[in-house]
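Meet today's protein:

…
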Amino acid sequence: MSTSVPFYRKYGRSYDRGYRYQSGSGYSVRTSAGTRTRGLDRSSQSRSDPLPKRANPSYLAVDRENQIIGYVVPVFRTSQEFAAGYSDESRLRNTATYMERRDMFTSGLEMERSEQISRKETMRESAQRISLNKTLYEHEEHFKRMNEDSLMHVPEFIIKPRSHTVWEKQCVRLHCTISGWPDPRVVWYKNNVAIDHLANAGKYKIESKYSVHSLEINKCDFEDTAQYRVSAMNVKGEVSAYASVVVKRFKGEVDEFLPAPRRTGVKDGPVSEYGITFQTNIVDNFGVSFGKEGETMSLGCTVIIYPALHHYQPEVQWYRDGVLLSPSKWNHMHWSGDRATLTLTHLNKEDEGLYTLRVTTKSGYKSYSAYVFVRDAEAEVEGAPGAPLDVCCLDANKDYIIVSWKQPAVDGGSSILGYFVDRCEVGTTHWIQCNDTPIKFARFPVTGLVEGRSYIFRVRAVNQSGMSRPSRVSEPVAAMDPADRARMRGNTAPWTGQIIVTEEEPAEGIVPGRPQELQVTEATKNYLVLSWKPPGEKGLEGVMYYVEKCVSGTDSWQRVNTEIPVKSPRFALFDLAEGNSYCFRVRCCNAAGVGEPSDPTEATTVGDKLDTPSAPSKVVPTRNTDTSVVVSWEASRDAKELVGYYIEASVVGSNIWEPCNNKPVNVTRFICHGLTTGEKYVFRVRAVNAAGLSPFSPESEPVEVKAAIASPAPPYGISVLECVRDSMVLGWKQPTFIGGADISGYFVDYREVVDGVEGKWQEANIRAVSERAYRVTDLKENKKYQFQVRAANIAGVGIPSLPSDTFLCEEWTIAVPGPPHDLQLREVRGNSMVLLWKSPVYQGRDPVNGFYVDMKEAEAPEEAWRGLNTKVTENSFFKVKNLKEQESYVFRVRAQNQAGVGKSSDISEPVQAVTKPGTKEILVDVDDDGVISLNFECANMTPDSKFVWSKNYEDMDDSSRLTMETKGNKSKVTFNSPGEEDIGIYSCLVTHTDGASSSYTISPEEMKRLLEISHDHKFPTIPLKSDLAVEMLEKGRVRFWLQAEKISANAKVDYVFNDNVMAQGEKYKMNFDKNTGVVELIMESLMPEDEGTFTFQMQDGKATNQSSLVLIGEVFKDLQKESEFQRKEWFRKQGPHFIEYLGYEVTPECCVVLKCKVGNIKKETSALWYKDGREIKADQNLGFTEGVLKLEIAQISKKDAGVYETVLKDERGQDTSKLNLTDQCFKDLMSEVFNYIANSSTPLKITSTDQGIRLYTFVSYYNDLLPVTWHYKDSAIAFSDRLKSGVVGDQLWLQISEPTEKDMGKYAIEFNSNDGKGGLRRTVELSGQAYEDALAEFKRLKAAAIAEKNRARVAGGLPDVVTIQEGKALNLTCNISGEPLPQVTWLKNDKELTSDEHCILRLESGKFASFTITAVSTADTGKYSILVKNKYGTESAEFTVSVFIPDEVAARKK
């Protein structure tokens, strides 16, 4: 054998086996591989394979003969295992192995030959092993197919889906591995809703391959955040696994560089699926509520979720007594986005219980609970019990349904005799009573139902007074067996793997066997319930049953259901004799016959097997709140089927018991609400089960209703206020909960801290300190300490606070003052509050001379701090104003001295600016004795509350100036000797409340006002609405009167005249109306001796007043004359009289109407008119219907002036009224007439005539006495032949003859009045175009007038017709005129005539034209005319000549 060293050892290098393989030594490769993998364990591997440090292992798998048979997967080692491989022991083992291997390499050829032989054998064995494995697998698969039942198992998750958190628009894939036989069917759900990937193609992709199932969600968005469930089902069962997908959204939708959200620890709270931790707060809560049956009640809470997301919907759930409520006709639920509301539409006692609102977000949930009590509705019959409750159906089959209920808490004052059960078929409204006699047991089997139909039930209670209201109806239930009911829900086997086993075809002609396991399941004195199992044979026809009974001890069996067999294996028996014992058995029957009876039951005695429970005991009430008491008791012993307990309460001494709950509670502790604060109550309890109510427990000890007392919560906010060499002054804040009693003091503990190690706690004070600041002494300088504080009240010492921060005990040398401490907020209102604090303990180098107050919103950043006062305030209080309502604020205070402003105080607790309901303010009052007081009332007091008054927010030590008095919820501070010393701010704080406080500022001005009111009250006067006055009454009576503002029934009055008291009598009538405060004295008339001073002296308790009236001299005489006149007037008015004396009025038509108004007239009353003593005869009778007499004067003139008189008279007397219309009165009348005329005038107009220009106006009526003046250019016109004025009818005119340009200008007509004053003036402007047009028209008219004057005319003288006898002479003459002399032409029948002997035509003196026919004949008959003509015109006149022949002449001619 060669002992040469291999080349890879000569140079001390580490070559791996890969290198040797590359060099061509296949032997080395195989040997190395075989040695490494032999046995496949680390121990053998370590011993046989010395791996160098950087060796790359081979993964070839070889058998014992080093034949390569495959590859192996390396086993990864942990870091510890890797390090262990290089320990010293390992190095030694590797070295020994290496030596062994080195010797192996020397065997060379021998090993190679043996290796070839073994390789063949290994390959043969490997092939045989593979063949055997295949045979075993095929045999196993065949066995599975042949024995499926033995291999079936429920699905099982090998790998469950895991939750994912992804960003929006990314894809996510959930996958799992499931085993099961048969292969399960897999369904994916999103929030319990099956995912339909076909309906959402592109969004979801579901795959199932080789037992690996996956759900892929493409492009996730915000809505894909949900809980996903994968369900695997086969015939053996169903399993589910859950995974959550959270899709996170980048803030702002655009910031892609935000870091991924980090997971917070447990301390930070859970991480929501949105990457946001939601903060849920439930505010505006509903409290303990009370309702009555039949009413509607709404419970609501405002839910604030921060941050608020628009699309986010929390899960809002309502529970009653821990049971989730679902929407129904009784419960309506609403979510508005920020408010959850539950409406109980029709309250019943079933609705009583503890209601819980639970709001669940992705970050957790918040809940709030309060109890709802439901009282019984008013009974329809007085004294009737309350309605039963919780009606439900326990057992339902084809033959009967067992109805159960709970007994009411109120029995109406007498024991409940029993209950009636009513049924109603669903779909109808007809109720049928099921039992004829009342039953006491709270369960009853209802029979006589129609198979397959559904029913609802209700129950009524009855006592000696009458029937209760019906209970709330039960849920509908069908009269059928449970198996039939299940079969109706679904008679097919769905893909879920449900297997429906159907009965075999019935075998005809086979009598059924005996029923099995017959037993009595329920027994009362009213009924028994039997149950059994059908016979074991299958395939029988529809089996029914007969039930038989016999009295115990006999063998006389009697069939119970003789008419109709029972279809269900349960049956209820009625009408059994109470106290007797019975045995029962059952027979099966079908069409083939009746089978053998079952084995009989044991003897059963008819009666209630369930006894009423025993009375509870040891009822212990405990104080809870101002209106509630916690009642606990020991449960009833040996109570069976206990339903619960009823609790009743009674005010001590009243003996009136009221139920505290109307729904049984199944606990032994209950909080009774709705009690009166301060009253003492006793309680009793009774238990209830189906058999009835137990006796009442013994009464509890009395307990007063008020808040319970507990030890206070720990203080907090410990800070250092001052530090010297060996002591430190600590300050802290009052506990948030003081335990219902005043804090009596505090205890301080301290411990030394050395290098971070805390020592033992030591007591700093043995006696409690009342202030929230304490100096801890005996400390060591430059040592570190921690402190804790405990609060104490009468209930004991509370738990200590959390340890403070670690403080170093070293002397403060700073010049500025330390921090103020003990910040408190009072008088919180919607827009203001008062901040109080205490001065710093450490003053600094100089005394503190003022303070600065800072404020910010509670949620605002540190930069939002702002100062409230620019100048320092010397007070230790500050009123903050102009706050925003509903906003929360925090405050801090800084002290100042000469060196500067010191460190700020600790920040106050956040306080919301809101005025709480019931908040009162301090009222100032001055009573009737002039006593000034401040009064404060608190509506939310507790029994332990106290009123604490202070001045300028400091305790008032000087009790000599003030007297304090408290009665109930009112407190009063009375000023003993009010003065300048009492000026200041007075505040009142009520302890043990939610901060009820108020203040009132008495400034110097306010004190002055109060002192004035006090003086008025001490020396009161009766205020008067009116002083003493006098007035005239009818009949000339004189009334003296005054009126007081306010007067009592004890007031009295003295009537004084000239210092003499007047008494009631004929002359004086006195009256004092105390309701109105009117005092009066009435005298029938005034005599000369009544001249003097009248005084009314009043007194009302201490208040007095008087008022006087002086009637002397002319004042008295005038009053006396007025009295006499009124007296005469009264007598005058007893008969017909004038209400309004005679007067006049002018109508728009300028008529004067004399009229008077009369009264107290009759039909017999006459009215006569006179003028100047002469009676005026009226044209018609005077009417008195309107009570007005009238006399109309039309177109009045001077002749109408005179004295007018009207006389009214009848048998009762007469009255006269005169009106003097002479002299000035007539002038005044005419002035009024003239005014009407002037106002009726039309505007002044211009017209032209043939003589000149005329200005004119029209009036409605013209009177000759109307004074009119014409003006030209504002000067009166002097009339002449050229300027004239006149009146034509109702037209007034001014004529300007032959106008020239000098006549141009402004003209006016003025209507004057009789008093000489100017009146109405109408003007017109005669100039310009108006003048030109008028002048042209004048000239035209003038020329036309000349032509008209000089034109040829026939003046007259010619007749129209002339009838003349033949032979007579006819001579006609007419006058003619014209300048120049007109030409005359005569015509006959329109033909000109010439003068001849027969017809002579003449013109004499140019004026007379004659026409003469010497002897007329019939030929002269015709139409004649004369025509005159000159240069100015032509005119003609016509006449007709008719010639007749006398009769005689005519006869002769014939």
About this structure: The CA atoms of residues 27 and 525 lie 101 Å apart. Confidence is low (pLDDT under 50) at residues 1-65, 67-93, 251-274, 490-505. Residues 108-146 form the longest helix (39 residues).
